[in-house]
Amino acid sequence: MTTLEDDTTPLAVIGTLIRSARQHKGLTQAQLAESLSTSQSAIARIEQGSQNLSVDMLARINAALEADLLPFAGTTRPTHLRVTGAQQLSGTITVNSSKNAAVALLCASLLNRGRTVLRRVARIVEVDRIVAVLRSIGVQVTWSEDGHDLEIVRPEHLDLSAIDNDAARRTRSIIMFFGPLLGQEPAFDLPYAGGCDLGTRTVEPHMIALRPFGLDVSASAGVYHAAVAPNTGERVRVVLTERGDTVTENAIMAAAGREGVTEIRNASPNYMVQDLCFYLELLGIRIDGIGTTTLTVHGAGEINADVEYQVSEDPVEAMSMLTAGIVTNSEITVARVPIEFMEIELAVLSEMGLRYTLSEEYPALNGRTRLVDLTVHPSALKAPIDKIHPMPFPGLNIDNLPFFALIAACATGHTTIHDWVYDSRAIHLTDLTRLGANVRLLDPHRLDVTGPTHWSGAEVSCPPALRPAVVILLAMLAAKGTSVLRGVDIIARGYEQLADRLRELGAHIETFRD
């Protein structure tokens, strides 16, 4: 009997597809197990990506779920979406937990020699890749039976020589292994970081942030070679040259894992950084200044604690769902919005004429993040007087900027979108012209958007960058007729079952493969 290769990454992806198809059919793990004449624990292992699958078993699962989960040829066919647009949306959708926070917390779990349980983790490709890397170096990572929680137990010694190079190179997040590892290993290698196609993104800010901790890095043959000087115990002062989220997280993890006090200036106080700090506090690390640009971290040489942490809600997903309501001129409610990280976006939208209402604030399950339920109402939008551009928190979120290009295309007048962070992300947003938008590229960082747009359906190849890909999908919801978005697998890097969730609001989206 032919079996799939014992490769954690594809098995995890297949497990995610099976779990999604099962839930879409309304079946429990026990019910699916009964139809397949197997055990519930076997289904749980399959959905966790920790059990090999035969071709015969895949065929039986396909039949039981009435799904086309995986072709049996050597490669997976790309996934496409067919959208029937200009449909009114309605209802309530709840914001999922933060992908960026989950990735940081998974990396930070390397600091803890005890047991970490992360609650409500987004089951997305980016998370699965980090899980694959952790498992490859000896960390026990187990999904709960319902697929929502992760239990992480690291071994006494990490086997970095066995690292899953393929999974590591497919995610830029591997760069955040430097921080937790430099206090534990005198020398180690990491594969080059990958991720979205957004132009040149230098890792030098990370190196600048970590040199005060004794890190020295050279690169050759696709590998970072790291050497770490012994800790002198002296107070460390770090000034970040870039107020980046992952740079700040790397510095915080390096500081948490060393004996002594570290002061970090020009730190990002963004949502994923705060989540990381809240988790480290549970581990017994004292951090002064959370939510500000100056952090003082009182590190520990060894951390051994059994903790559980609830990952906070994702403001970028909240913005995605809010945009779906805006562009379809619908009234929808987006529940569990982390309002602290959406206030600038809402202020800009108010200037553009958006009508919305907010519930009273209530605490997230982590007890720290402030949430609201946000209802967006059909509105006549106008272009803002000033350009729209991102800034480090508390400014407009860099990941939320692409949604404003789409919203601007629905507004009357000219809007300048200035994406100064990335070299080529703005170029991907010009694909909106395929659907009828008037979007002109002024230079690699600036767009001129003129609205309102009379959207019409078209076939578009998915941009090779996460947020622009979602922007094109949301634009198709507004377009008359039928649109096709080809090759949408990149969306799974940052969103869990996005098409299914939009369908819950009334969107007409069909998933298919050639």
How does this structure look, described?
This protein is α+β, with helices and mostly antiparallel strands and 514 residues long. The chain has 3 domains: 74 residues, 434 Repressor (Amino-terminal Domain) (Orthogonal Bundle); 217 residues, Enolpyruvate transferase domain (UDP-n-acetylglucosamine1-carboxyvinyl-transferase, Chain, Alpha-beta prism); 212 residues, Alpha-beta prism (UDP-n-acetylglucosamine1-carboxyvinyl-transferase, Chain), CATH 3.65.10. It has 17 helices and 23 strands. Strands 2, 14, 15, 16 and 17 form a 5-stranded mixed sheet that branches. The chain has a 4-stranded mixed sheet with strand order 21-22-1-23, covered by helices on one side. The chain has a 4-stranded mixed sheet with strand order 4-5-3-13, with helices on one face. α1 packs across α3, α10 packs parallel to α11 and α12 runs parallel beside α14. The radius of gyration is 23 Å and the shape is globular. The two termini are 27 Å apart. The N terminus is likely disordered.
